[in-house]
Structure formats: C-alpha cells, structure tokens
Amino acid sequence: MDELIIPVGELDKVSAAGTVFVYHGVKHSHSYVSQACTVNIVKKIFPDCTSGHNISCGKTKSHEICCNVLGVKRGLIGFIEQATETAIGIKNMLKGVLTENDVDLKKIVSLGANNTNMNYGCNHSVYFFQSHDGQCVLYFLQNILFDLQRSNLQLQRTNTTIVDLLRIIGSLVTSLQRRIDTNYFGFKSKQILNELPKEKKDALSKSFLTYIQRIIQYITNYFDQNRELYEAVSFLSKTDIDNIEFDCLINCIFALIVDGVELDLLFIDYNEILSTFKIIKRSGRSLRDLTLVLPSGVKNDPTVEN
Fold first, then answer.
1. pLDDT tens digits for 44-98?
2. Among 118, 92, 100, 227, which Cα is nearest to 166's?
3. In the chain, fewer beta carbons within 10 Å around the N or the C end?
4. 103 pLDDT exceeds 80?
5. From CA 31, how far away is CA 17, in angstroms rounded?
6. What domain of life is recorded for the organism (predicted)?
7. How far is residue 139's CA from residue 187's CA, in Å, rounded to a whole number?
8. What is the DSSP string of 39-59?
9. Do 147 and 186 touch, CB atoms closer than 8 A?
10. Do 234 and 198 form a contact (C-beta atoms < 8 A)?
11. pTM to 2 decimals?
12. How far apart are CA 58 and CA 70, in angstroms?
C-alpha cells in the first residue's frame, strides 16, 4: 500500500487501503460482493486500527474505484465481421484487434460467446447434436414446437377474434396433456428412447414431461385470468342457432358488461330469430337465395307462411 500511494493524513490512509483492496480483488478475480464482505470482517477483526475501522468498500464504491481510478483507460474497440465465421478465423481476428489496442489477452478474465460453432464447454458442445441424447431431444422439440407454432399461427390470423380463443388454446392444452398421459413425444423420439439404457431413458422422459407441464402451466397462468370471459363468448362461434341457449346470451352480456340491454325484449328477438332459422332450415334453399327473396317478398313467400 505504501508503494502504491504515499499517505499524508488519516483520510489518505483510508483511501489508499480501499484502493488496494479493489486492486487486490480485481487481480484475483474477486467479486465486489465478496470484497465488501472481506472489508466488513477486517473492521471487526481489527477494531483498534483507525484505518481499518473507517474503511468502507461496498459494491458501488468498488466499481467506481475500479473503473474511474484504476481502470483509467476506457473506450470502444471496433471488431469487424468475420466472413468465414470459423473458430480459427474468429480467434485470430479477436487476438489481432486486441493487440492493436494494447489489450493483453492474458488479462481477459471472462469470455462471452454467441452463435459459437465449435465445442464450447460441456453444456454447449457441438457434439451434443451428434449424440443419441441430442437427436432424441431435437425430435421431441420438433413435435412440441410444431403444436405451439400451429396454435400461434391460428392466433395471428386477421379473422381471429375473442370468440376463437377458448377453442384454440383449449385444443393446444388438450393436445399437450394427451402427450403427458400417453408418454408420446414423437415416433422418432420413441425409437431412440427404446434404444437407450433404462436410466438414461427415464431421465429424458422425465425431462420431457417436465417441459410440457411447464408449458401448460405457463399458458394456463395467463389464460385463466380471463377464462370466464372466453367461455362466456365462445358460443358465438356456433353455426347452428338451435344449440344456442338464451342463458348463453345472458352470460355473455354480463361478462362483456353491456349496459342498457332489455333482457325481456332480447328474449322476444331470440325467439323470432330461432323461429326464422328453423324455417330456413326446412326450406332446403340456399342462404343466398333466401337473402334475395325475404326482404322484398317475405309476405308472399309460401315457405315463410308455412
């Protein structure tokens, strides 16, 4: 500490001690949290030491000392694109750019990689895709993601309304739940699972079940917030009016909070529409023909009179 900063007063000693702590932590790759904990222990171990008792070096202060005092050189380093994107090419390009900016490669304490196309660690290895386990997982995801994407595309249709939500989401959840009940994760996944040792097979099957259960839980957590509304309006998707009960209309009005609706008059309209629909069904004529006839000749049309 005496070689780094020559103290003049007590405040200088405290500042020097804090700076040395930060420098020591960075050199040995200690976290700011670990460093703050160490400082608190020092204050308790040496309560009679004035400098040790007054030193403070929390996360925020350590960061400021590291970046604005010790790390006085800051700036953006421009990396060009690597056309071939090979592992060797990327390494040489990074090393060259760092060297040009006087950055010692040995002083880099961490590395982040995105779209790494090589054997990068035990959990992100390219060899995962060549193993039986990897192929089984990929075939499983192919089946599950197909179900999700199909429902997603249905939801994104321009003619999709709130009336369709219960049918689309309900069908998806039912399909996923059926996979859980039958332990069916796709034919190719099933073939690979049967070839694996029992311990590995059970582990993969359990992970597949957990994955599907979490998807269902995620969907229901959001969908159930308005499930009563979706159920109340779902009857509007029916094409056969005979299957629509008047109670469904009442529940829909209450769910949508529609004010000013006279339910007694609505019941009269409901009966008239239902009677007209039955007449149309008995006529055997197309809806287009009836649309052209009814407005102008409804009184003279024998079908209506019967």
1. 887 777 776 777 777 778 777 777 777 655 555 565 566 655 667 777 777 787 7
2. 227
3. C
4. no
5. 17
6. Eukaryota
7. 9
8. HHHHHHH-TT-HHHHH----H
9. no
10. no
11. 0.47
12. 16
